[in-house]
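Notebook entry, structure prediction.
Reason for the run: the old model in the group folder had no record of what sequence produced it. Starting over properly, with the input documented here first.
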Amino acid sequence: MAVKGLGQIDQQYDGSKIKVGIIHARWNRVIIDALVDGAIKRMKELGVTEENIIVETVPGSYELPYASEVFMKKLHPEIDVVIPIGVLIKGSTMHFEYISESVTHALMNLQNKVKKPIIFGLLTCLTEEQAMARAGIDEGKTMHNHGEDWGAAAVEMAVKYGSL
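New structure, fully documented this time:
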């Protein structure tokens, strides 16, 4: 379970000229907050200014694709890249599988529709402990805060590939 980050990046990217949107679900708030903070921290290290990071919330992960589209097309068309962040933890019903698959496919299709990069910031974990580890808040056994990876990926994708 020792999964770590993006691996070696091909170069250092300067995010000083990009605008980033973060849209996050409110479910599993402690984990979400750690992931959002990790993404913002990493983007700032790569030069993204605080005023160029816009953060909005939605009720849950299922709402992330629609909110991301409205956010990018209507509310903030100047945004270069968006990071939808959600945490899904498996329960005793099929709900987890349906939401995970639906949101994953919708976000993948959305980036082709809006012609801008969308970073996949959806944790799909079997347990709360797995989610906490991936958010870097698992009391002494910290694996890695994936929010940092998402922030780095957002800067790289916006700088390197931009919008069509």
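Summary: The longest helix spans residues 95-114.
The old model has been moved to the deprecated folder.
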